[in-house]
Amino acid sequence: MSTRDVAALVVLWSAAHPETEQAVTNAVTVAERQDGRLRVVAVDVQANPGIAAAFQVQQIPMTVGLVAGQPVPLFPGVQPAEQLAPVVAELLKVAAQNGVTGHITDAGQVEAPDEPEIDPRFEAAFDAVEAGDYDTAIAAYEQVLKEAPADDDAKAGLAQVKLLKRVADADLAAARAEAAAKPTDVAAQTLAADLDLAGGHVEDAFTRLVDLVRATAEEERDAARAHLLELFEIVGPKDERVVKARRALMSALF
After folding, report:
1. Mean pLDDT, to the nearest integer, of 83-101?
2. CB-CB contact of 6 with 98 (8 Å)
3. Domains in the chain, start-ordered, CATH in brackets?
4. Distances in Å between the alpha carbon of 33 and those of 40, 84, 130, 195?
5. What is the pTM of this model?
6. Which residue, 11, 30, 47, 215, is most buried by CB atoms nearer than 10 A?
7. pLDDT over threshold 90, residue 68
């Protein structure tokens, strides 16, 4: 049974940093409690650079959910099993909402990844991301969109790479402090929202920007709205959190 039938936790770790394997252990501990509704896939980023590039890994360890083959950003770092449990509960809720309700019999088994087939149109973008060259990756996705403006995968990829570029050199503590001090500053709030999303705090990112739309007007409001729509592209239009945030955005606008 594939990850399109059963929700999965993909844990990106590195054999070069043995301490990161604890993230795999914690994921397995939680998966064993889910009655076969969750599988764990461990990815050694050193051995699988293509997969690491596809997930646009910023740091290791990193845990990403997979629902119907679509990534759901969760969190970087090692989370204790007791803190991981509510995150998994939310992931399984999203999975059920998307019709992903399959079960497996070996929930405690860690699976090795298959090297994914990369759409040849995106190879240049993936190679650039792997090299940390976000500008080239952005240009590659933009070229695909020139040829196929309605391509949802290219739109999502472009939004993801732009996010990576924005947060690459951000100081997390400083950014959050500035956002707290400037609740209606578009630059401060959008950067904080980017960091929220990159850290797996999807609903926090959306709420922050909806609140910013409510608190601003004219050009600033347009900028906040546009940024929120770009984050929607990353998470995916069918995700329940996006659906909920779209309703909140409509309420804030009208």
Report:
1. 84
2. no
3. 7-111 (3.40.30.10), 118-169 (no CATH), 171-254 (1.25.40)
4. 12, 12, 35, 30
5. 0.60
6. 11
7. no
